[in-house]
Amino acid sequence: MALLSLGINHLTAPVDIREKVAFGPEQMPQALQELQGIPAINESVIVSTCNRTEIYCDASSDSSSVITDWLSTYHGLTNGKLSPYIYHHVDQEVARHLFRVASGLDSMVLGEPQILGQLKDSYDQARGGNAVNAILDRLFQHSFSVAKRVRTDTEIGANPVSVAFAAVNLSKQIFGKLDKLHALLIGAGETIELVSRHLKTQHIGSMTIANRSLERAQALASDIGADAVQINEVPEKLAKADIVISSTASQLPILGKGATESALRERKRRPIFMVDLAVPRDIEQEVGELDDIYLYTVDDLKSVVDENLKGRELAAEAAHEIINLEVTAFAQWLKTHQSADHIRQLRDSAELVKQLALERALSQLQQDGDPQQILERLANDITNKLLHKPTLEMRRALQEDDDARVRLLKYLLSRD
After folding, report:
1. 199 and 148, same structural domain?
2. Active site residue: 11, 50, 340, 379, which one?
3. Which residue of 7, 79, 127, 278 lies most exposed, with the fewest beta carbons within 10 A?
4. Are residues 197 and 81 in the same domain?
């Protein structure tokens, strides 16, 4: 029996390789069925995200090369195409790797929490496909509890390390609760999408998305429950905004000092928190000179992000200590489980010898054979069958002068 994992991630493979071996949700049932069809595979889980594709297996032998060949064939890649990028882990190192992944220590953004949900989805898909049994069930459940402990006992997730999250976190520090506030988001690209989702998580009261393409703004707005306007409507929407976060590709400022002064008068000097994540800037520098305006640029947030990243790196050291302890605990469980399997196999083998000999003896008794001779033959058959392999092993050990093995066999075959 071998617990093994193999895969590629953002550290070992470029995006053009990662995208070639990604599994979509609709592919998982068939992929798991094929993987389970490999003779040595007892259990399997496939994890596939934008940054990694990994396969976890409980197998009767080390089947890494067979699984790599299957992965290549499934995705139509030639043999050897993946080999330079793939990493392998066996037994307790599988646990160490998975615990690090679940805790966000192997992510592109250190400590990010999204991977844990993706692991749970992968585990659920494998369970739904009857691909998970005792070993992988214990492994993945253990990884979930490790990730929870790392988040609870360290500061790995306490500090934002993306400018989008840092912007939202800063707004929360300034205002406290956001549930009665309105946010005006300028742009509709990836950064503003992340900002909008973070704001939604923080229960922002309402949002407006302003973009040059109204269609793009409407698409994002409908997804997060916001309003959508064209970017030329920003000045008239500004008076309602408590929070303004902007990130566009415009070469000229979108929001100037005059429009902001007008909005402040209409708001009766209620402050506005502004974050300009664009380069070149979307918000004129002079806006920051106004009373009741709190303006931050991407450089202001970058210093926060860099400092927070240092904090996460320190927290990661504590997280690794937790993982080391948990790996030891899992390894002990795995050893106990595997030894129980070996004992069960030994007993099953002996039981089979007994049953075959007993059936033969009963058949002979039904044919009116001599009971004493039948019982003697029954005892001899069982003894010879059970001692055949130990006898061969004893001869081999004596020929090789392996005293330790000789003593062990003598002990196992002794009557005491």
Report:
1. no
2. 50
3. 79
4. no
Give yes or no for a contact between 406 and 393, defined as CB atoms under 8 angstroms apart.
Answer: no
pLDDT of amino acid 259: 96
What is the distance between the alpha carbons of residues 275 and 282, in angstroms, rounded to a whole number?
10
Number of independent structural domains in the chain: 3
Instruction: Assess whether 191 and 233 both reside in one domain.
Output: yes
Burial of 202 (0-12, 13-18, 19+ CB in 10 A): middle
pLDDT, block means (10 residues), the chain with 416 residues: 89 88 92 95 94 93 90 90 93 96 88 88 96 95 96 82 82 92 94 92 95 95 95 95 94 94 94 92 94 90 76 88 95 78 66 77 78 78 75 77 74 65
Q: And the tokens for 325? A: 């302890």
- CATH of residue 206's domain is 3.40.50.720
Q: Is 269 helix (H, G, I), strand (E, B) or coil?
A: coil
Residues 8 and 370: their CA atoms lie apart, in Å, by 68
- Tracing tokens 């609870």 back to the chain, one arrives at 152
pLDDT at 60: 86
Instruction: Give 180: exposed, middle or buried? Use CB within 10 Å, 0-12, 13-18, 19+.
Output: exposed
Instruction: Please report the pLDDT score of residue 372 as a whole number.
Output: 82
The structure's pTM equals 0.62
206-211/227-230 β-pairing: parallel
Residue 252 DSSP label: S
Q: Is 57 a catalytic residue?
A: no
